[in-house]
## 1
Amino acid sequence: MKSPLLEIRNLHVSVDRHQILKGIDLQVNAGEVHSIMGPNGSGKSTLAQVLSRRDAYEVNSGEALLNGEDLLAMKPEEAAWAGVFLAFQYPVEVPGISNAYFLRTAVNAMRKARGLEEMSAMEFLPMFREKLRLLEMDDKLMNRSVNEGFSGGEKKRNEILQMAVLEPKLAILDETDSGLDIDALRVVAKGINAMRGPERAIVVVTHYQRLLDYIVPDFVHVLVDGRIVRSGGPELARELEETGYGSMEASTSAA
Amino acid sequence: MSSNVNAIRKLAEREYKWGFVSEIESESVPKGLNEEMVRLISAKKHEPEFMLEWRLKAYRHWASLERASAEPKWANIRYGPIDYQNMVYYSAPKQKPALESLELLDPEILATYQKLGIPLDEQKRLAGVAVDAVFDSVSVVTTFKEKLREAGVIFCSFSEAVQQHPELVRKYLGSVVPYTDNFFAALNAAVFSDGSFVYVPRDVHCPMELSTYFRINAAETGQFERTLIVADASAYVSYLEGCTAPIRDQNQLHAAVVELVALDDAQIKYSTVQNWYPGDREGKGGIYNFVTKRGKCEGVNSKISWTQVETGSAITWKYPSCILRGDNSVGEFYSVALTNNYQQADTGTKMIHIGKNTKSTIVTKGISAGHGQNTYRGQVKIMKGAVGARNYTQCDSLLIGDKCGAHTFPYIEVRNSSAKMEHEASTSKIGEDQMFYLRQRGIKGEDAISMIVNGFCKRVFRELPMEFAVEAQKLLSVSLEGSVG
Ligand SMILES: Nc1ncnc2c1ncn2[C@@H]1O[C@H](COP(=O)(O)OP(=O)(O)OP(=O)(O)O)[C@@H](O)[C@H]1O
Ligand SMILES: [Mg+2]
């Protein structure tokens, strides 16, 4: 049996001495889509950012392996080279750097790190255009500075565009659906679904069933106060929609 | 945060790649400055009487300022006293300058410029760019002279201009920056040894970019060059200067003066990529870059545009300015100033609006890293008669790390109520958020910083001539690059 793509064992994480994650266990195999749900402040973004190696967090104990390798020993760019992609809950602006240039730089940084030839503008453009069409994005956005002056929805769509171009192994999407109108949600979901495949795993952090109507997950996990309190199939998300998190918290204290 | 800190540390440890010394036999004068020295410099250059008189007046003025300890003290920079008697005021390669032909040029000098990336020989020259190469105190060669002459453009060393075009020199020398202007301008007027001279006649659009490359090589020598550019009615010229110096423990003084004159409907675009030796990591050595640059928009509808990318020097003290005398004239100042390690920069501009409907634009980007201190100092003055004058100022500062500083001193003086003034300023830090975002996309820490900084400077780089925009961008990245290969 080959090892799982991502394996998290008993992960404890704190920020400024506040314990945020209190023992996470999670296994994600290639080809799977997992959804993580949970109330505000429960630690979903913390988990996403720790896995993509933001260094503001302190790992107190536990481990996270990517293809059997120690993910927590990697720098952010090393995790990225190893195939981890984070679609940010709050995408960041980079003034003066065009979206297209930024993406090509990213693609080539990845290729270089993996020992591949850099892509020329001529090779990059057709691929890039295709992904733009997939996400029904305006070419004009590509000559604008990264995320600068983008609407909330445009920023989120831009994150998924980046994922489509970078073709990660493990994509973690942090509330990509929030701030999207109904049409945009459909387009973004289409983009994400196009990325599903046997080589790739996707972890979707969301508050709403709405997104999961389009992207049907294989597993749903409920994160409450730094712990995964329940895991199940897609039906768990629907159950949550009706009962809220209250009953879940009760079930942890009972456990 | 730790890996971001690492990238910042590497950045602070950048190497200076232009710090080599060339073995060239040179002829220097003894150290020290007095009337005799001024006479000697003038005699060495076989100057006409009017030049010597002007130099002597400047010297006497400077000496009186020096006696009164009137070296400017108002700038936000710190340095020990400069011993003006312990400095060499003239140093030139022994061999005669080969102003017309490269065959006569010392191969060692040729190799020096080659190494600096400024090929002077015919085949390898930068296409479309004429270069005046100034080595220590003298101009050693000017390229593409013939082609320019056909167009009627005079582009030569200052020394040559004094011999060949004394009437033009006499008319314009000191007309924008008089020797009484300030301490360093007076010093320069007394002892300046060379520089570039440009005259573009009426209705001529200069067919190529002109540039001067300044190289300090000799030790304990000051460089005092003087550049004078005159664009006659409806003429256009774009000019660029670059500069480097060897790595030395002692500070060296560079006190230059640049004067620009634009007549009716004329345009001058002046760009600088300043990369003098900045000193080492502890702040030892480096060039004191104390420069006076000013342009006069003498004619109606004339335009002078300054663009500077200042990455070198231990200390930079310069305020390229515009006197907007002609009605509808336009002055622009675009600046990127980077201070790293212990570098200090106090730089900005003065825009003096005299004519009607005059317009000025100021865009500055200050970047501080390491222990660098970066000051923007700018003055916008709207005189009584300047009906309908307009100014737009935007000053942005970017801090990398937490040991550096950014300061802004805008002075605004408005004597005509019809003036429209706009001022924007911002200070930001390279954010952890931004760094993480770029690194999450696979871009290494150092490259991420360089990308953020380049993005920050974009508005200014856009103003550089195409040939140099890429160079400037690279230089900035190199200046930000760590010493690891
Ligand atoms: N520097 C900090 N100091 C103290 N607490 C912090 C710090 N940073 C984050 N937290 C806390 O960590 C908790 C988890 O935050 P996180 O962003 O992971 O939640 P989330 O599950 O993504 O919430 P949401 O659904 O609102 O996005 C929150 O209570 C937050 O306030
Ligand atoms: Mg969150």
Note: The pocket of adenosine-5'-triphosphate (ligand 1) is lined by residues A 15-16, 18, 20, 38, 40-46, 89 (CB under 6 Å).
## 2
Amino acid sequence: MSETFEPEIIAFVCTYCTYAGADLAGTSRLKYAPNVRIIRLPCTGRISPMFILKALQKGADGVLISGCHPGDCHFTHGNYHARRRWMVFRALLDFIGIPPERVKYSWISAAEGVKFAEFINSVTEDIRKLGPFEQYTQLIDQAKAPASL
Amino acid sequence: MSIEEQYRTRAKELLSGGAVKMVIGYGKGSNASRRRPIFISSADDVERLVLDDACITNLSGYLVSEGLLSDEKRVAVFLRPEGIRAINILAAESQLDADQIVIFGFDVAGNEVKALKGIHVEEFSDVITSIKESAPEAAEEELFEKIEKMSPQERFSFWQEEFSKCIKCYACRQACPMCYCRRCIVDSNQPQWVNTSSHTLGNFEWNIVRAFHLSGRCVECGNCDRACPVNIPLRLINHRMAEEVLGAFDHFAGTSKTQEPVLASFKKDDSETFIL
Ligand code: SF4
Ligand code: SF4
């Protein structure tokens, strides 16, 4: 087991800013950690907390959520609604014992390719240090096991 | 005249004059220390009403029973302050017309029952404000603080232990006045967000969703907690969420019938210290 642990991270991003930011990072040939699977959504307001739970349910070690800076929302205030929701959901996850380090939030605009690459790198590094989310994957394994009578 | 007597008399007057079509109150339960909800529509039955310190259940949820209020007639209901807050929330969320609800307000201090003055929900705003200001503690402050001090791993283990007991009976949902959705997210299978089995993974998801959907709406009446057949301390999660919305958004659920739901509104300068 000398191999370094490669976390699997799911990123939910808004198409109008962070996704375009990711594109910019790509076209600018910026290198960033390949651990992130990006899922594009029409707005941060569309990112239901259920998505975060679903990602964890499918074995993600970390989840990223990113969208337009306050004031820049394509739909004018989707990100303001999202921000409140995250605040509350974050507190809930923390209280239940799902470490806040595993679920990260950011604002990244279409012009911030560099910020995107750095964000991905730093989060990947942090989650690599934390290691696999064993407490949760153990629940997933249990759920898969045949029922004992 | 005891409060019980006064309220029976008032119920009799309202029913016989036709001012309300039904009184929802408490009656004798299965043993001396239990009370059960009763639904009275005849003035002759008011003697069955009981009011004492064992009247705990928040009865407001019955008001959103399908069709009950659709004839626009009035219904009277016995409510503690939490129940009165629930009426405000239900009205703010357009689930009922607060003018149709006649309140028999009461509160219990020690084992003494006292009447709360007022008939319509807006007359109780002082009572509600004073609860907000008194910053009620968690039902089990010690355990609550212990959990807060744990590491995330310890907290996870604590809840893993608790949630592993859940049998997904959804009694907590049925008992909650604010869980009125016709189709709950756990009943949705296209897509299926929450594992339906009552394995611990599915139970985590269920309990997280339940608490999240009640954040900023829960009045800490304790109906869910008392309904849980395996005694999961849901009150602790509810309290944590109430504390969060109060601290972050100065939101105390159910202060008025026009209060904006906390997760359906925002301020441009809401806190965002956690966003990178
Ligand atoms: S979540 Fe529980 S304590 Fe809160 S309002 Fe619903 S039943 Fe009452
Ligand atoms: S009442 Fe208790 S056992 Fe039933 S679904 Fe709710 S938490 Fe689970």
Note: Chain B touches chain A through 50 residues (CB under 8 Å).
